[in-house]
Amino acid sequence: MDQISLNHEASAGDTHKQLVSSLPPEVVQCLENARFLHLATCIDNQPHVSLMNYTYIPSSQYSSAPVIVMTTNPSSKKTNNLVVNPNVSLLVHDWVSHRPPTQGRRMSGGSPGPEHRSSLASLLLNLNTSAISSISATINGTAQLVARGSDEERFYRSQHLENNTFDSEGGTVPFDGGFGANGGAGGQQQDGGRECFVAGEEVRVILVHIKDIRTSDWKGSVKDWVLVPEGGPAAVNGIR
After folding, report:
1. Hey, where are the domains in the chain?
2. Three-state SS for 144?
3. Dist. CA 60–CA 122, nearest whole Å
């Protein structure tokens, strides 16, 4: 098997961080294309990952810097975690995640093997396994629960609600904005859960302020950026 040579340092390194005042175009494209992200929270050395709907907002009257908006049940594990520890990590990509058929692989869930698929189904599967984007992005930042009943909360909630209209496509929105231990596919509803889990009165709005970004492509190339406000510090860890 041919080995892919890395044209950047090993991914554990961070000596090539670039200071930027706005998100790189490829990261913006990834955020605008993807439908879900993975939200990682952690307390007491116990990590927790949730699959979430989200809305990327480049700037607004409430923040000149880009933010990522999500909503959550106030009693969810992710909510409890980020109240104790607001440091979060997000993984976003717009690669289609369906696994292509592997010869000899045992199919689960009664899925038909390659020999039983129609030519149309095979064509759609091949299209579906094609990468839309060339990168995935890991975004680190701090999360806050926006003050309940505030104008800021109403603004972000309306933006998030407008951005999550998947029911019009015949699809669904994950329970609680994400698949969690108390959610899963069984929590999906005919309207995608949109009115309940995005617009519901008890739902809390999460705002993630971006600190740094790491992108990786299929060749193993890694790039790092640190997001600083205009007129911010001239150096981070000695890097200008």
Report:
1. 25-96+118-216
2. strand
3. 44
With beta carbons less than 8 A apart as the criterion, state whether 57 and 66 touch: yes
* pTM score, whole prediction: 0.72
CATH fold of 25-96+118-216, please?
Pnp Oxidase; Chain A (2.30.110)
Beta bridge partners of 20: 227
Contacts of 154-158 with C-beta under 8 Å, sequence gap 24+, read 155/60, 155/61, 155/62, 156/55, 156/57, 156/62, 156/69, 156/205, 156/207, 157/71, 157/198, 157/199, 157/203, 157/205
The 8-class DSSP code of residue 105 comes to: P
pLDDT along the chain (240 residues), means of 10: 47 76 93 93 97 95 96 94 97 72 54 58 55 80 96 95 68 46 39 50 91 90 90 49
